[in-house]
Amino acid sequence: MGANGYVFAIDLNGYVLLHPNLQPQIINFREPVTLDFLDAELEDENKEEIRRSMIDGNDGQRFIKTLIKSLDEQYIDEVFRTYTWAPIKSTNYSLGLVLPPYSTYYIQANLSDQILQVKYFEFLLPNSFESEGHVFIAPREYCKDLDLSDNNTEFLENFIALMEKVTPDSKQCDNFLLHNLILDTGITQQLVEQVWKDQDLNTYSLLAVFAATDGGITRVFPNKAADDWEEEPEPFNASFYRRSLDNKGYIFKPPYRDAGYRGLDLENNTIGILVSTAVELSIEGKSLKPAVVGVKLDLEAWAEKFKVLASNRTDRDQLGTRRCDPSSSCEMDCEANNKDLICVLIDDGGFLVLSNQEDHWYQVGKFFSEVDANLMSALYNNSFYARKESYDFQSVCAPEAPSNTGAAPRGVFVVSTLRDGAFQGPLSVSPVPFMGTCWLTSPSLPIAHCGRSPEPCLVDLGRSLQFLYSLTYSSWFQTEEVVGDGMEARETSCIMKQTQYYFSTVNATYNAIIDCGNCS
């Protein structure tokens, strides 16, 4: 199914029994989680009709354009998906399959040549990392006897030790997973030899180049760049990977900064910005995206480059600079006129990526409204953004001691105050010459909020079976553990309202004088 495909199942009430977004934060809770299909995804008219058809026991298929949240819930993307569903015989449930267009076909490696297997496998050995770049492998169950580990270095050691005892064609191993893993190891190594080693990364102010594949390989070059690599070793669980597949062009991922972040000393710390794009292939007329490639920009160096790239100086204006003010017609020079001009690059989540202001460098990765609320507000008010509200019915909140909780549902504490959270928002920017076009999307201010009233429920065993399923397959709920009943609660279940914005057009421009707020 690939990184963005999944299966789900619902009962006669529309509650999901299986869904990748069914991830309650409180385990050991007294009552089963009831999450409606329309709450597990971003609701729209098409999904309402799909839900109704599944409840009625029909089968069907529909190709739709819809909105999705990124894995880290910091971005909104408009995507195409094919929904296929059918009732499960002798039950009151219906099963659904969701696939993006690029997951209709996939690569199945045929590595029957054992000499080729051994050759490619050697590029997984740590002694090759210094020259070929560091390799992270997705922690998948390649073989029955493989010991899993959260430490990728340890997992790789376990994998290599097992491969010295068995072959990729062993019956105890998943041959499909192993062959694709080894094939991608060889392909990414060839990328190093034929492309990356011929480039001087310092010339382009790059900290690293990388490739992540559907087969589970993430290769980071040079090897020392792996020391600062913070992305998931499983590409399917990496937000940059999944978003790159769903978007054209380049995806920017600045380091995450919460509202309380105070910045790093740039002289002693190097900050990198990930820029990635999907590799799209067409084989015999069939389209697929088997990998994502990208670079890691050196923030300090690229902040200087940005001053030049964002300027629109002509030859006649190179020798001298003119002061730019709202009434003048001088050309924009983000380098020479940085005291008068604020030039910023904002990604498709509304997070600051680059700026010509040095005091902004410590705020890279923050939602732009925290940097310049008036400008962000003006961009939204002038229709640079569309807005989507949704509810997270599986959130946890810090407990408070309310004076009267009589109206609250059993086991659920409804919080009425704002809490800090991740913002998201979009903005239009000009193309950056070296990397391509960038875009924008949305702020999300999580607010504790009461949920919508549930629809009338049909009487069946859905909730009981879902509760039993949650006890049997606890791995579905392995998120942050929270103390449940019978112990002093540290956190409690609550419902969070999220308002997210996304860039509604890539062709809009905006030119106006706005109130800059508390500025001089």
Summarize the helices and strands and which ones pair or pack.
Blueprint (H helix, E strand, L loop, with lengths): L5 E5 L5 E3 L18 H4 L4 H11 L4 E10 L6 E12 L6 E6 L14 H8 L7 H4 L1 E4 L14 H12 L11 H20 L11 E8 L3 E5 L17 H8 L4 E3 L18 E12 L2 E13 H11 L34 E3 L5 E4 L17 H9 L3 E13 L49 E2 L13 H11 L19 E12 L17
Antiparallel strand pairs: 1-2, 1-5, 3-4, 4-5, 6-8, 7-8, 7-11, 9-10, 10-11, 12-13, 14-16, 15-16
Helix pairs in contact: 3-6
Work out the helix count.
10
Strand arrangement, major sheet: 6-8-7-11-10-9
- Count of DSSP strands: 16
The span between the termini is 55 Å
Mean pLDDT: 78
User: What class would the helix/strand composition place it in?
Assistant: alpha+beta
The shape is: globular
Task: Indicate the CATH class of the largest domain.
Answer: Alpha Beta
* Element-level helix/strand string: EEHHEEEHHEHHEEHEEEHEEHEEHE
Number of domains: 3
Q: What are the low-pLDDT stretches, counting only 5+ consecutive residues below 50? A: 264-268, 404-488
CATH topology of the largest domain: Beta-Lactamase
Determine the fraction of residues in helical runs and give it as a percent range: 10-25%
* CATH architecture assignment name of the largest domain: 2-Layer Sandwich
Q: What is the C-alpha radius of gyration, as a whole number of Å?
A: 25 Å
Biggest β-sheet: count, sense, barrel? 6 strands, antiparallel
Query: How much of the polypeptide forms β-strand, as a percent range?
Result: 15-25%
Pfam families: VGCC_alpha2
GO molecular function: voltage-gated calcium channel activity
InterPro entries: Ca_channel_alpha-2/delta (IPR051173), VDCC_a2/dsu (IPR013680)
Organism: Lamprotornis superbus
